[in-house]
Amino acid sequence: MKIDAPKIPEDLKARRFTDIFFLEDPEFEMCMVTDSEFVDEVLDRMRLYKTVIRNCNFTNTDFSRIDLTDVCFENCDLSNANLSNASMNRVEFLNCKLLGSNLTDSYIGNAIFRESILNMGLFGNSKLEKVIFDNTELESADLFDCKLKKVEFLSCNLNGVNFDETSLKGIDISTSYFDFLTVSMKNLKGCIVSSSQAIQFASLLGLKIK
């Protein structure tokens, strides 16, 4: 699936993330932020546009209602960060850690999570449109009552993921792996699975395969 990549110019202004406290509005545009520590902070309604964030630590930080457009996160730690009610468009998370991060009630479009850790991540009540999870850990993540449109899971760990009240119609999980999932048979209808996964789901239904 082709998604729209972030539109980021080459000429970016170097910033430290703490510079945000000295700006009139909590907004970075056309910036390169590297090697910043921004832990246990609270920053409501922050806006990032056409920006690269590299090698930064944002653990336990409250970024609720953050607005991200044309942004690339590389080698960042956002574990236990609050990204709820976020708006994300043309965003990349590359080799990032989002362990237990909260992305509930958000819109995520034209986004890619590649070689990242989202174990126990919370996506409940979010809309994901044109999103790729590539070689990413999603163990015990919660995707309760999500709207998934053109979402791909490529070689991901989906063990223990909660898809309750989330339709997987047209969603391809065939290259990913899991021991168990939480999903209803109604919402599993139309999901694209491998032959071995079909056997797994049959066993969950109590069917005996000869």
TrEMBL record:
SUPFAM superfamilies: Pentapeptide repeat-like. Signal peptide: none annotated. InterPro entries: 5peptide_repeat (IPR001646), PA_immunity-related (IPR052949). Coiled coil: none annotated. This is Hypothetical conserved protein. It comes from Oceanobacillus iheyensis (strain DSM 14371 / CIP 107618 / JCM 11309 / KCTC 3954 / HTE831).
